[in-house]
């Protein structure tokens, strides 16, 4: 989970409720789709009388609302600080359900069970002596807040989503991109991390593809010559670390 200050925290509820999106307006947005704290507006008498012919429950009625992003990342050039990126794809290091970053030896939210046959730790939600409101989300210091963005102009951008505070105005703002360069000869159509190595990234667009390693920006690991056909997508093999697939446009 990401807070409004950009801090990555442990997901106590163990469900996926946040969404990241990007568009050509030079922004990457973070959204929260949980039920608002104020609760769902009660249905009117007329609405309650409406018969649902499909028998679908109103469990997700709260999603029929207007949502606003809780965090905006505005992309700026690392050289000039001007807004000149049109993001198409992005890739973050962490994925939903991946709990490798949690320090198993220093958990504030989990307690050791006396009965080892039931497992090593107990979730506060399952502990009758604790509730979710009593548990405090742990800030994950080992989660990297930098991520990659592929743009309409074939650029690869390395950006921090953590906002910074202006010392004079005390307002928060998005820092300039840490690094950017042109990697392909067309709009980026794919930006995929290896399922075996989180820091190895495959980027493709136009007639070219490259493989980069995160935080090493002196050059790509693999730079292939342009293909004869335009690339439409790429994907890593789920079983072989050194294999990936390329789909091309046949005209």
TrEMBL record:
<keyword id="KW-0963">Cytoplasm</keyword>
<dbReference type="InterPro" id="IPR036322">
    <property type="entry name" value="WD40_repeat_dom_sf"/>
</dbReference>
<keyword id="KW-0853">WD repeat</keyword>
<dbReference type="GO" id="GO:0036159">
    <property type="term" value="P:inner dynein arm assembly"/>
</dbReference>
<protein>
    <submittedName>
        <fullName>Uncharacterized protein</fullName>
    </submittedName>
</protein>
<dbReference type="GO" id="GO:0045503">
    <property type="term" value="F:dynein light chain binding"/>
</dbReference>
<dbReference type="InterPro" id="IPR050687">
    <property type="entry name" value="Dynein_IC"/>
</dbReference>
<keyword id="KW-0677">Repeat</keyword>
<dbReference type="GO" id="GO:0045504">
    <property type="term" value="F:dynein heavy chain binding"/>
</dbReference>
<dbReference type="GO" id="GO:0060294">
    <property type="term" value="P:cilium movement involved in cell motility"/>
</dbReference>
<dbReference type="GO" id="GO:0036156">
    <property type="term" value="C:inner dynein arm"/>
</dbReference>
